[in-house]
Specification:
The chain has about 70 residues and is mostly helical. It is built from four helices and no strands.
């Protein structure tokens, strides 16, 4: 799997509402365990932690740059 392809999939994962790691592993033609291993190698985080971090970052951006509130 090329690093660029993997990072593209990382961004897709971060924006997913429902996380199904097997779906993303299939997209990369990898087993689930290999996908998780390579994901962590490329991003420095597990898919779960990457998703949480990206969601918090996006929420902070929306709170800072829009009139949207919490709730």
């Amino acid at each position: 799997v090329a690093p660029g392809q993997f990072m593209t999939n990382a961004h897709v994962v971060a924006n997913a509402v429902k996380i199904d790691i097997s779906l993303y592993a299939d997209m990369c033609n990898l087993s689930i365990s290999r996908f998780i291993h390579l994901f962590k190698k490329c991003t420095g985080k597990s898919p779960k932690n990457y998703i949480l971090e990206m969601r918090v970052k996006r929420a902070a951006e929306l709170l800072e740059n829009t009139d949207l509130g919490v709730g």
